[in-house]
Amino acid sequence: MSTSGNQKRLMKSAARLYAVQALYQMEQSGQTVDQVRVEFLEHRFGEQFDDYEMVEGHTGLFTRTLEDAVNHQALIDQMTDRGLVAKWPIARIDPTLRALFRAAGAELTQSDTPPKVVISEYVGVATAFFPEGRESKFVNAVLDHMAREAKPEAF
């Protein structure tokens, strides 16, 4: 059975959400990238609850994003810092947002995904984590700055 284009997009969106969750979990728990990757791939993707089933994520995108975020963290954090207000370096921001910027930064710097797609997808992730807040606007502004630095030719 083949996967439709819409299903592939949903799986990629889910992979991005899972990557942010995995990076957050690594920071909070001290687990390694290998431990967290295995946990997510074996237990989180498609996890079932009483009345809800988690979406199956795109394993390739999830794995690549997670590994690129870890392997290129210094570069990504420096780029994020340049997009933040001087009084709020990446170490001072919410850990969920820090994980989000690292995942998005990994895609912006290490993949061929168009920057506007990366921005749109991660603004959606921010909205999922902070549905009542202004974080999505903040994320949009910082990611726009990061994207213009990483891939100026796309703008």
Summarize the structure.
The protein has helices spanning 5-29, 33-44, 59-71, 73-83, 95-110, 115-129, 135-150. It is built from seven helices and no strands. The chain is mainly alpha-helical and 155 residues long.
Spell out the blueprint of helices and strands.
Layout: H1 5-29, H2 33-44, H3 59-71, H4 73-83, H5 95-110, H6 115-129, H7 135-150
Helix pairs in contact: 1-2, 1-3, 1-5, 3-5, 4-5, 4-7, 5-6, 5-7, 6-7
Q: Any key phrases for this structure?
A:
single chain, 155 residues, mainly alpha, 7 helices
Biggest sheet layout: none
Shape: globular
Q: Helix segment count?
A: 7
**Integer-rounded radius of gyration:** 15 Å
Structural class: mainly alpha
Task: Report, as a whole number of angstroms, the end-to-end distance.
Answer: 38 Å
**Average pLDDT across residues?**
91
Q: What percent of the residues sit in helical stretches (DSSP H or I)?
A: 55-70%
Which oligomerization state do the chains in this entry correspond to?
Answer: single chain
Tell how many strands the DSSP assignment holds.
Answer: 0
Assess the beta-strand content as a share of residues: under 5%
Low-confidence spans: pLDDT under 50, at least 5 residues? Answer: none
Succession of helices and strands? HHHHHHH
Descriptive account of the structure:
This protein is mainly alpha-helical and about 160 residues long. Helix content is about 70%, strand content about 0%. It is built from 7 helices and no strands. Helix 1 crosses helix 5, helix 4 crosses helix 5 and helix 4 crosses helix 7. The model has no long low-confidence stretch (mean pLDDT about 90).
